[in-house]
């Protein structure tokens, strides 16, 4: 017997009221937004509730929206999966640009540990009470956060690339 | 099976032979010995490493070129086969491994990523290992076929065979190493 | 807790100073460094050792970080396929097909049955080739080089089949949005049938060499175990999770590309140790061979690609003679195709587990954000817990049986 999206939405709004919002069905995954200060409680509820039973954190990633409002510039997107009823959901938490901090969920799902480190490494999003929040994929000495939109893809120090062959001019570079 | 005659002897170097003796240049003999027993250090980082595993396996057997023993210790290896992308985080380690190798040593850079950064023109990838160590043979490809890797090894063998015994102490070589800041 | 932010060498040096054993010996630090014959790929483990036993360890990864997610934000969709190849490069067709399926979900493209069956065949071939590497290299790491040499011959045969289909051996860049770029030649089917006949006895021989071999069993039973609850919490998927006893397989949970038409079993282990992982992968090769046989026997006739001129490049001779084909070709290459603003997550069962693609589009020809859910990255976190208390050579065997591919670890 399937767990309907309406049931999920109802249980969440009953428990958390306005903390969860903006429920949408995008392709086959129910997507909603959670206030970033309450994410731990919402995830604990999703994991432990007897009807919801979202036992698996599929993935966790960050996103950067430089054109959005200042308090919604960063977001962390969680994908959860319920293995018993085979339902997936997507949770989005928006964070402000000047202080992108969010509670860690690595105590609920151990797989979040490195994924949060990766998100910190790429975007600079701080995960409060994370046991070991340091860079993981980039070099430890790096100071900037490369996946932010303003960081360039290519290494600026190359001297052997001729921009004429790449069609690059001062306008479009 | 082809009908061509299978050659089992390597051609002898030029020299003067007589009853029970063969005289040739020292560098020819040394070159022949070195070229036919190059022990590689497979520095395999990514996809080219899997093509190297295919080269090592029985179909494309690299052991018939003298590389019977893969040495993972730099002190016991002759040639450094750098296969795969070298990220900037990995560059100091590659440099350290190269410095630990004993002379004479050669470097083959296998794959587009090792030669020039390949398709990864990014902030985290070293755009070619010749920025940090001197390279003797470049094998392009993404990944190169095992036949190409073997061709690279054969070109290196030609280099090794024709090298002078005094090359390692020559001023050109010292200048080359100095340009990379290698002591 | 800020102690954990120190580099592991310094942290362990502090522990060594404080702790002394009864017999006066000290702990030591061992660097299972990035370049190591047994680490197939580049990742580092700094281990705190008590003689031969591992007390604690910390993994450092990122030595081959090539910034795939950043590159993907700057490339049109069809140029991202070579990047997906290079993640799990032992089974690159699975990555390619997963990416195309993600795009098809986002663009609402329906793939014809024949193309779906052909995709299943090539994905199962890739799974076989990935498991061949993992199991034979596990043999090499425990000292048995023979198995590796025997079965690698058949990997060459699989490569020949890839060459017939797409022209490349390892990094295949196979397929298009909606199917394949060309119909498979009769030679490809012939080689596939020959492989299906010749490979099973060889794989049986490989199993006989190792599965009931006393030395191999002693080296791998109870080595690197993990319980099912811990594995689920750590995000394990794929053969590593199935060895722990949980039968989670995306091909069954959320079938894609007509997997529901095929009849196969999902092998499951008991204790999650190295021996179980080895046996699960062995059995999965048999199941993959059976799936390929079923797909070949039931292969329907029909087009090998979907009829979506908006996204699928027209054949070159039509481009030179037909106005519409020319226009579509121009639009596709210059990127003026209709791309909806949406986000989609599509998982496939890769060689190592759930390989997911989270794509966020913004209407332009490059993605706004593409995140790869890489199974190796997620389950490698558990390595230190799996080897705590074991001996060093057990750690090597565990590492080898986890099938950590560096390209997928760092992306």
Architecture blueprint of SSEs:
The complex is a heterotrimer of chains A (173), B (183) and C (411).
Chain A: H1 5-16, E1 20-26, E2 29-34, H2 39-48, E3 56-64, E4 74-82, E5 87-95, E6 101-103, H3 112-123, E7 126-128
Parallel strand pairs in A: 2-5, 6-7
Antiparallel strand pairs in A: 1-2, 3-4, 4-5
Chain B: E1 15-18, E2 21-24, H1 26-35, E3 40-44, H2 47-56, E4 79-83, H3 91-100, E5 106-110, H4 112-116, E6 137-139, H5 146-161, H6 171-179
Parallel strand pairs in B: 3-4, 4-5, 5-6
Antiparallel strand pairs in B: 1-2
Helix pairs in contact in B: 1-5, 2-5
Chain C: H1 8-18, E1 28-32, E2 44-50, E3 53-60, H2 68-72, H3 81-85, H4 92-107, H5 113-141, H6 145-166, H7 186-210, H8 214-220, H9 228-233, H10 239-243, H11 250-253, H12 274-297, H13 316-321, H14 323-334, E4 343-349, E5 354-360, E6 369-373, H15 375-379, H16 383-387, H17 392-401, H18 406-410
Antiparallel strand pairs in C: 1-2, 2-3, 4-5, 5-6
Helix pairs in contact in C: 4-5, 5-6, 5-12, 5-17, 6-7, 7-12
Strands of the largest sheet of chain B, in order across it?
A: 3-4-5-6
Radius of gyration of chain B: 18 Å
What is the residue-averaged pLDDT of chain B? 88
Distance between the termini of chain C: 29 Å
Alpha-carbon Rg of chain C, integer: 23 Å
Q: Based on Cα principal axes, name the global outline of chain B.
A: globular
Class by alpha and beta content of chain C: mainly alpha
| Helix and strand run of chain C | HEEEHHHHHHHHHHHHHEEEHHHH
- Beta-strand share of residues of chain B: 5-15%
SSE succession of chain B: EEHEHEHEHEHH
Overall number of strands of chain C: 6
Q: How would you characterize the largest beta sheet of chain C? A: 3 strands, antiparallel
The average pLDDT of chain C is 90
How would you characterize the overall build of this protein?
The complex is a heterotrimer of chains A (173), B (183) and C (411). Chain A is α/β, with parallel strands linked by helices. In chain A, 20% of the residues lie in helices and 27% in strands. Chain A has three helices and seven strands, in the order H-E-E-H-E-E-E-E-H-E. Chain A has a five-stranded mixed β-sheet with strand order 1-2-5-4-3, covered by helices on one side. Chain A is elongated and about 60 Å long. Chain B is built from six helices and six strands; from the N terminus they run E-E-H-E-H-E-H-E-H-E-H-H. In chain B, the strands form two sheets. Chain B has a four-stranded parallel β-sheet. In chain B, strand 3, helix 2 (47-56) and strand 4 (79-83) form a beta-alpha-beta unit. The radius of gyration of chain B is 18 Å and the shape is globular. The model of chain B has no long low-confidence stretch (mean pLDDT 88). In chain C, helix 4 packs antiparallel against helix 5 and helix 5 runs antiparallel to helix 12. Chain C has a three-stranded antiparallel β-sheet with strand order 1-2-3. Chain C has helices at residues 8-18, 68-72, 81-85, 92-107, 113-141, 145-166, 186-210, 214-220, 228-233, 239-243, 250-253, 274-297, 316-321, 323-334, 375-379, 383-387, 392-401, 406-410, and strands at 28-32, 44-50, 53-60, 343-349, 354-360, 369-373. Chain A binds chain C through residues 26-27, 29, 31, 55-59, 61, 63, 77, 79, 83, 86, 88, 90, 109-111, 113-115, 118, 122, 131-140, 146-147, 151, 153, and chain C through 1, 4-5, 7, 61-62, 65, 67, 69-71, 73-74, 105-106, 230, 232-235, 248, 253-254, 342-345, 347, 354, 356, 358, 360, 369, 371, 373, 377-382, 410.
């Amino acid at each position: 017997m399937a767990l309907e999206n309406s049931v999920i939405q109802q249980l969440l709004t009953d428990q958390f009221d306005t903390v969860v919002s903006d429920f949408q069905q995008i392709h086959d995954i129910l997507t909603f937004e959670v206030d970033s200060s309450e994410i731990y409680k919402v995830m604990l509820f999703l994991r432990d509730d007897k009807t919801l039973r979202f036992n698996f954190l599929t993935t966790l990633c960050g996103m950067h929206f430089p054109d959005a409002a200042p308090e919604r510039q960063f977001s962390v997107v969680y994908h959860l999966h319920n293995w018993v009823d085979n339902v997936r959901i997507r949770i989005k938490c928006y964070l402000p640009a000047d202080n992108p901090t969010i509670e860690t969920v690595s105590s609920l799902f151990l797989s979040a540990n490195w994924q949060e480190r990766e998100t910190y490494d790429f975007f600079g999003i701080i995960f409060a009470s994370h046991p070991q929040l340091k860079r993981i994929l980039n070099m430890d000495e790096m100071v900037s956060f490369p996946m932010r939109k303003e960081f360039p893809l290519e290494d600026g120090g190359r001297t052997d690339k001729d921009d004429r062959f790449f069609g690059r001019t001062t306008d479009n570079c | 099976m082809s009908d061509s005659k299978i050659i089992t002897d390597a051609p002898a170097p030029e020299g003067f032979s007589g009853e029970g003796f063969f005289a040739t240049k020292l560098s020819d003999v040394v070159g022949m010995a070195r070229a036919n027993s190059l022990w590689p250090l497979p520095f395999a980082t990514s996809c080219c490493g899997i093509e190297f595993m295919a080269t090592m396996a029985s179909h494309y057997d690299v052991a018939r070129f003298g590389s019977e023993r893969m040495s993972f210790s730099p002190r016991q290896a002759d040639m450094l086969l750098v296969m795969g992308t070298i990220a900037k985080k990995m560059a100091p380690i590659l440099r350290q491994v190269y410095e630990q190798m004993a002379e004479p040593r050669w470097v083959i850079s296998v794959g587009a990523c090792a030669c020039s950064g390949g398709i990864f023109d990014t902030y985290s990838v070293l755009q070619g290992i010749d920025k940090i160590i001197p390279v003797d043979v470049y094998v392009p490809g993404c990944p190169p076929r095992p036949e190409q890797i073997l061709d690279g090894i054969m070109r290196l063998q030609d280099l090794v065979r024709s090298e002078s015994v005094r090359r390692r102490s020559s001023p050109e070589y010292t200048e080359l190493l100095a340009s990379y800041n290698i002591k | 807790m800020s102690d954990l932010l120190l580099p592991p060498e310094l942290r362990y040096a502090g522990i060594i100073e404080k702790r002394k054993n009864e017999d006066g010996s000290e702990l030591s630090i061992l660097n299972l460094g990035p370049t190591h014959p047994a680490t197939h790929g580049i990742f580092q483990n700094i281990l705190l050792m008590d003689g031969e036993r591992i007390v604690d360890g910390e993994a450092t990864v990122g030595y081959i970080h090539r910034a795939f997610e950043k590159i993907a934000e700057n490339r049109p969709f069809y140029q991202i396929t070579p990047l997906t190849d290079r993640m799990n490069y032992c089974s690159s067709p699975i990555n390619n097909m997963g990416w195309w399926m993600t795009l098809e979900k986002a663009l609402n493209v329906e793939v014809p049955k024949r193309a779906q069956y052909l995709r299943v065949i090539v994905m199962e071939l890739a799974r076989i080739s990935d498991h061949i590497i993992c199991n034979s290299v596990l043999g090499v790491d425990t000292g048995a080089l023979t198995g590796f040499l025997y079965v690698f011959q058949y990997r060459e045969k699989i490569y020949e089949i890839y060459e017939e289909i797409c022209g490349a051996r390892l990094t295949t860049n196979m397929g298009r949005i909606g199917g394949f770029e060309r119909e498979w030649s009769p030679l490809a089917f012939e080689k596939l049938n020959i492989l299906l006949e010749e490979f099973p006895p060889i794989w049986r021989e490989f199993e006989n060499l190792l599965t009931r071999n006393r030395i191999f069993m002693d080296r791998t039973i109870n080595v690197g175990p993990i319980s099912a609850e811990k594995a689920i919490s750590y995000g394990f998927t794929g053969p590593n999770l199935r060895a722990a006893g949980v039968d989670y397989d995306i091909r069954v949970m959320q079938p894609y590309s007509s997997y529901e038409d095929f009849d196969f079993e999902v092998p499951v282990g008991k204790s999650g140790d190295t021996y179980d992982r080895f046996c699960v992968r062995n059995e999965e090769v048999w199941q993959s061979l059976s799936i390929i046989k079923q797909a070949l026997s039931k292969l329907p006739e029909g087009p090998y690609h979907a009829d979506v001129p908006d996204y699928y490049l027209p054949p070159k001779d039509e481009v030179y003679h037909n106005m519409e084909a020319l226009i579509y070709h121009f639009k596709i290459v210059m990127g003026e195709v209709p791309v909806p603003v949406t986000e989609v997550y599509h998982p496939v069962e890769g060689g190592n587990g759930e390989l997911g693609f989270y794509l966020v589009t913004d209407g332009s020809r490059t993605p706004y954000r593409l995140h790869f859910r890489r199974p190796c990255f997620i389950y490698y976190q558990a390595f230190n817990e799996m080897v705590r208390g074991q001996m060093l050579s057990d750690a090597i065997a565990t590492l080898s049986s986890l099938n950590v591919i560096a390209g997928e670890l760092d992306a």
